[in-house]
Design brief:
Blueprint: H1 10-20, H2 27-51, H3 70-78, H4 86-96, E1 101-103, H5 111-125, E2 136-139, H6 143-156, E3 164-167, H7 173-179, E4 185-188, H8 190-199, E5 210-214, H9 216-221, H10 225-233, E6 240-244, H11 250-259, E7 264-266, E8 281-287, H12 293-302, E9 308-312, H13 316-329, E10 335-338, H14 344-356, E11 360-364, E12 379-382, H15 389-396, E13 406-412, H16 417-426, E14 432-433, H17 445-454, H18 456-474, H19 489-495, H20 513-517, H21 520-526, H22 545-551, H23 560-565, H24 601-608, H25 610-617, E15 623-625, E16 631-633, H26 640-645, H27 649-696, E17 700-703, E18 710-713, H28 720-729, H29 764-776
Parallel strand pairs: 1-6, 1-7, 2-4, 2-5, 3-4, 5-6, 8-13, 8-14, 9-11, 9-12, 10-11, 12-13
Antiparallel strand pairs: 15-16, 17-18
Helix pairs in contact: 4-5, 5-6, 8-10, 13-18, 17-18, 24-25, 27-28
Motif (Q motif): 61-89
EC number: 3.6.4.13
Domain DEAD-box RNA helicase Q: 61-89
């Protein structure tokens, strides 16, 4: 007998049933017992989590020491994660207990696992299935970082049965909407996640348990504050929130205050920035003038061809120009580029190639500075000065990750040296100066000038790089470091290969990050003329880089000679008599019509719609003018009185028919006379041609059977005019030879009978006739 009070395990049940030899357990019994067994494991795990001491972080060193499931441990071990880092020892146990976490740590310390492991464990303890919908949401600032988080998630969670999805910009929104409702964990960027929360019907958030905000400061700095607020507004208040940020400015603290409830702070101090850099990182700086930076970068790459180098610029235009020029000059190392306004497929491909490459050089913007883990980077080169110490920390943090060795070099202008070193020193960042020998420098200025002269697109890229650099310096807030007035524009332009410094127009000092990340459709609708006409974005037309290059009006891509011939730069020469010179006339305001703006929607529509404006004026009509120049409609209706004066309708119809009949008869007579004249003219021409042929003896004579007259034919349907003209224009040698039909015996009297004159045979029949004639002779 089985005690009903104590439910046996699956093995015990099989053993008991085997002793009774009655029957095997049914599938329903197996599922029930397996479910009971799973529930017992979760209860045991929950008990371990509750009994775990948060102050015991110094006593643990591996993931196996944490109260997590065997499936997660197996996934971590297969992915190569065994030992715990400092942030993981503190953050994971606190998150497992269900507390909100507000944490920060130095770059490369393993923050990704610090929130992924508690997220997976939360799903397991809540027994989440595919029917529960969205349970965990992870928000990351960039696509590359989101993809990296998703790859780590699928790697360590492959032994669990939850579903996970990745949503980022640049992908098919319709494809994501069809599948997003079935995801338990969602990883994505703020813009795309906010779009799905607003548009995707099946996205349900009532069961959400965990919200992760990774690199929260970066999300806010990139202009995603509205999107993040929208995402949080769609989530239930009863949830666990894990916030990880490198800096804790006032905006991040406000976000934490609104999103977190009594959070456990890990590594958060009163300072706004976390300035710790890896201990295995050697940091250097060099004082280099602006016009020598590209030469210095080229020399550095040429002397480190067996290294993996990451180069930071302040703008994507500089990245494009440097990549295109260096790729043409071929330094001897694989070159790559990565920046924000790049196609999604290209960004993913570049990230994968650089991660797998052993020796390569990647030109990038600050989009790569946060969170991305590129293995074994040897050097991080900062060509342009970072905006603050926090950005510097994140840039150099791409090297020397997880205890590996690495080096960094910061290129500073003489005007930036004092201010930037003061900022780094106040953040307790130790950096040493590197003295560069003059003999090790190599200049590429002649090659760049040659490229800009030969290739218009390279010149255009150089001009855009020049303008974007000056704008990036102008918009910086720390004016003690960034002094745009002390930059040498002409020298910098010559160092890029440009003949001169382009004109720079800076509209405002504000940042355009919010405008950059806003919806393009909304921007298109918001742009309107003074007349109120809305410009819609033309998405159907695909523009190449050459189309975009020549559409720019503020760049002197074409030569000065061409610009002098066209546009506003054209000179008023005396010889230019074909051009119309504009003259300024005195305008009398009293003679101008009164203009008033539309005051209602109906008036506005009528003023801007061609169809509406014609409606009030009637249908358009055509006019014809009489001899006096008076306009008349093409079809005019007579007045009724005038019509009655001319008689009744039957008589008018009869007179009209008679009149038209008379006109047609006269036209028929004229047509017959014209046809008769043409026939007579043709007959005369034919007789004249026959006479000429008879006189000269050309053509072939044939006797007419009916009349007995001799008719001279030229073969085929002859055009008399053409034949007579050809006959008159031809010379004596070109005309056809006379061929008499009958030859007299007197003509052959002088010929020798021993010889036979024949024409050269042309066909087989001619050869047969010649052979038979010779045999008869």
């Amino acid at each position: 007998m089985i005690n009903c009070k104590s439910i046996p395990t699956l093995d015990q049940f099989i053993t008991v049933m085997g002793k009774n030899n009655s029957k095997q357990p049914s599938q329903r019994d197996r599922k029930r017992l397996e479910h009971q067994r799973k529930k017992e494991r979760i209860q045991e795990l929950q008990k371990r989590v509750e009994e775990y001491d948060l102050n015991a972080d110094e006593q643990i060193s591996q993931f196996s020491d944490l109260p997590i499931t065997d499936e997660t441990l197996k996934g971590l071990k297969d992915s190569g994660f065994v030992n715990l880092t400092g942030i993981q020892k503190k953050a994971i146990p606190a998150a497992l207990k269900g507390s909100d976490v507000m944490a920060t740590a130095k770059t490369g310390s393993g923050k990704t696992l610090a929130f992924l492991v508690p997220t997976i464990e939360s799903l397991i303890r809540n027994e989440v299935s595919e029917y529960d919908g969205l349970v965990a949401l992870i928000v990351s600032p960039t696509r590359e970082l989101s993809i990296q988080i998703f790859e780590v998630l699928t790697s360590i969670g492959k032994y669990n049965s939850f579903s996970a999805g990745l949503v980022t910009g640049g992908k098919d929104v319709k494809f994501e909407k069809e599948r997003i409702s079935r995801m338990n964990i969602l990883v994505g960027t703020p813009g795309r996640l906010s779009q799905h929360f607003n548009e995707s019907v099946g996205l349900e958030t009532s069961n959400l348990k965990v919200l992760v905000l990774d690199e929260a400061d970066r999300c806010l700095d990139m202009g995603f504050k509205k999107q993040v607020d929208n995402i949080i507004g769609h989530l239930p208040p009863t949830r666990q929130t894990l916030l990880y940020s490198a800096t804790f400015s006032q905006s991040v603290r406000d976000l934490a205050r609104l999103s977190l409830a009594d959070p456990m702070k890990i590594g958060v101090s009163s300072d706004d920035i976390i300035s710790e850099t890896p201990e295995s990182l050697d940091q250097y700086y060099a004082i280099i003038p602006l016009h020598e930076k590209l030469d210095m970068l080229w020399s550095f790459i040429k002397s480190h061809l067996k290294s993996k180098i990451l180069v930071f610029f302040s703008s994507s235009k500089q990245v494009q120009f440097t990549y295109e020029t260096f790729r043409t000059l071929q330094p001897g190392i694989p070159l790559m580029k990565l920046y924000g306004r790049h196609k999604q497929t290209s960004r993913l491909e570049t990230t994968y190639k650089f991660s797998k490459a052993q020796h390569a050089c990647l030109f990038a913007t600050d989009i790569v500075a946060r969170g991305l883990d590129f293995p074994a980077i040897d050097w991080v080169i900062q060509v342009d000065c970072p905006e603050d110490a926090a950005t510097y920390v994140h840039r150099v943090g791409r090297a020397a990750r997880f205890g590996r060795q690495g080096k960094s070099l910061l290129m500073l202008l003489p005007s930036e040296e004092e201010g930037m070193l003061k900022r780094l020193d106040s953040s307790k960042i130790g950096i040493k100066q590197m003295n560069i020998k003059e003999k090790s420098k190599k200049t590429i200025r002649p090659q760049l000038q040659s490229l800009c002269f030969k290739e218009p697109q390279i010149k255009n890229l150089g001009q855009r790089a020049f303008i974007s650099y000056f704008k990036s310096v102008h918009i910086q807030k720390d004016k003690e470091i960034f002094k745009v007035n002390e930059l040498s524009a002409e020298k910098y332009a010559h160092s890029l290969g440009l003949p001169g410094a382009p004109n720079i127009k800076i509209k405002g000092e504000g940042s355009n990050k919010e405008k950059k990340n806003a919806s393009r459709k909304l921007l298109a609708l918001s742009k309107a003329d003074e007349d109120g006409e809305i410009h819609e974005q033309k998405e159907d037309k695909v523009k190449t880089k050459y189309d975009r290059m020549f559409e720019r009006k503020n760049q002197t891509v074409l030569s000065d000679h061409y610009l002098k011939l066209t546009g506003d730069n054209a000179k008023d020469d005396d010889e230019d008599f074909m051009s119309i010179k504009r003259q300024d006339h005195d305008i009398k305001e009293t003679e101008l019509p009164e203009l008033s703006a539309p005051v209602s929607k109906r008036q506005y529509k009528k003023a801007h719609s061609k169809k509406a404006s014609l409606k009030s004026k009637g249908n358009p009509s055509k006019f014809k003018f009489d001899d006096e120049g008076n306009p008349h409609a093409i079809y005019e209706l007579e007045d009724e009185e005038d019509f009655k004066k001319m008689g009744d309708a039957k008589s008018q119809i009869e007179s009209f028919v008679n009149k038209e009949t008379q006109v047609m008869n006269e036209a028929d007579v004229q047509d017959k006379l014209t046809a008769k004249e043409k026939r007579q003219e043709k007959k005369l021409k034919r007789k004249e041609f026959e006479r000429l042929m008879r006189e000269k003896g050309y053509g072939s004579a044939e006797e007419d059977d009916d009349s007995g007259n001799v008719v001279y034919t030229t073969g085929g349907d002859a055009d008399l005019d053409r034949d007579m003209e050809a006959f008159a224009d031809s010379s004596e040698d070109e005309r056809p030879k006379k061929k008499p039909r009958f030859a007299s015996k007197a003509d052959n009297s002088n010929k020798d009978d021993r010889f036979l004159e024949v024409e050269e045979p042309q066909t087989i029949e001619d050869l047969e006739a010649l052979s038979s004639k010779l045999l008869e002779g």
